[in-house]
Design brief:
Helix content is 38%, strand content 16%. It is built from 18 helices and 13 strands. The strands form 4 sheets. A 6-stranded parallel sheet has the order 5-2-1-6-7-8, sandwiched between helices. A hairpin with a 5-residue loop joins β9 and β10. The chain is elongated and about 85 Å long.
């Protein structure tokens, strides 16, 4: 079956996580992603381990789990774009591409003659996406940017953690991931625009901008009220009860009551119907204003049943709840398994011949996501791509390799 981006080709000069996240999604949607890496070194994240994929001899392959997480459906081509010959070779490949994604520091691409200004006139249909820490403008533009910096400057750390504890980053590189998602959406919108007008365009995305954008309701709470949100642990600033609570069997339950009807159903199942009629708790507005009083009562109520008893009973009456799964429990969860959120792909370096990856969550009815290429080892497709796209001969490829260009 066809994929949505069949026939599209991406020149991927991105590294770290935001850029590779975006290009992996484009690859999952059918695009041919040409991942450009430095000869002998490659993507920095290849060395961001342990853990590494185990090889056939039992030793580490040098393919880190971090790298494997965001480089599926790509072909690795090694080119030293810092060399004039490498930049010229890159430009020849760009001529056959629809999309260029890079996440180098501001003005780095201009040093190699590969900036949007350098390419726009020759390739007017090219969609060029630059991902940086702080964007192409503003006082921070020259700075290097990483996920944790964006989380810190962008405010999410100030509202993550316990009220009296230190600020905490989110447990995954969420600023990187969300920036990659925004990049994917922007690129797809630019493709739609090009389909209608024939015109390519430049996309300027930053970790900080996207971090600020996904403050969502917490950001609006400040803009509307003028009050600076603080840390509330696992509580929700606008919904009560919405928290992690202990159960009889020393486990934890997430109780996420989203409306007054659900609260009444919870109270009935919990054997505490009077709570639903208490003026302090009868509406969500009241519960938010009296959260401390309610949260003082709930632990004793929750300790009356086991986690499984709560989950089964509350689910039956339509009250949202869940366990707090460890990562191994996530992949053993029947719903996660039913949705196919782990995918195994053949890998030439793996001891088992396979590598397990996180699946793409998008479910299409007519153009399904495809899994064609496992994350490539460094330079795996250099000769293949140069022959296929540029019709290079063995002698031309050998000369480039001898000169250290590839």
């Amino acid at each position: 079956m066809p994929s949505p981006l069949d026939g599209m080709r991406v020149f991927d000069l991105a590294r770290i996580l935001a850029g590779p996240t975006a290009t992996q999604l484009l690859g999952d949607l059918g695009a041919d992603v040409i991942k450009i890496e430095r000869p002998g070194a490659g993507d920095d994240t290849r060395k961001w381990g342990p853990p590494y994929l185990a090889g056939r001899d039992g030793a580490d392959t040098g393919e880190s789990a971090y790298y494997l997480s965001s480089n599926r459906n790509k072909r690795s081509v090694t080119i030293d774009v810092a060399k004039p010959e490498g930049a010229a070779l890159a430009k020849r490949l760009i001529a056959g591409c629809d999309i260029f994604v890079e996440n180098f520091k501001v003005d780095d691409m201009a040093r190699y003659g590969l900036s949007y200004a350098d390419l726009k006139a020759e390739f007017p249909r090219l969609i060029y996406c630059s991902i940086t820490g702080f964007g192409q403008t503003g006082p921070y533009a020259p700075r290097a940017g990483y996920d944790m910096l964006a989380q810190g400057i962008g405010g999410v750390m100030s509202v993550t953690g316990e009220k009296d504890g230190p600020p905490l980053k989110v447990g995954v590189g969420i600023a990187d991931v969300m920036c990659g998602m925004y990049a994917s959406v922007a690129i797809l919108a630019a493709l739609h625009h090009r389909e209608k007008t024939g015109e390519g365009q430049y996309i300027d995305l930053s970790l900080l901008d996207t971090q600020v954008a996904w403050l969502i309701n917490v950001g609006l709470n400040y803009l509307v009220s003028g009050q600076v949100p603080g840390r509330v642990g696992n509580e929700h600033p606008n919904i009560v009860p919405y928290n992690v609570l202990p159960t009889k069997d020393d486990r934890h339950l997430i109780l996420a009551v989203g409306n007054d009807s659900q609260f009444a159903k919870f109270c009935a199942f919990a054997g505490a119907p009077a709570l639903a009629d208490d003026p302090r708790f009868v509406t969500n507005d009241a519960r938010v204003r009296n959260r401390r009083a309610l949260y003082e009562l709930l632990p004793d109520i929750l300790l009356a049943k086991t986690q499984r008893e709560w989950i089964d009973g509350l689910a039956a009456v339509g009250v949202p709840c869940s366990p707090v799964n460890s990562i191994d429990q996530v992949f053993a969860d029947p719903q996660v398994q039913a949705r196919g959120m782990k995918v195994s792909m053949p890998h030439p370096l793996s001891a088992s011949g396979l590598v397990d990856l996180l699946a793409n969550p998008i479910k299409f009815s007519a153009t399904p996501v495809s899994y064609r290429q496992p994350p490539p080892y460094l330079g795996q497709h250099t000769e293949e791509v140069l022959r296929e796209l540029l019709r290079m001969s063995d002698s031309e490829i050998a000369a480039l390799r001898s000169a250290g260009v590839i």
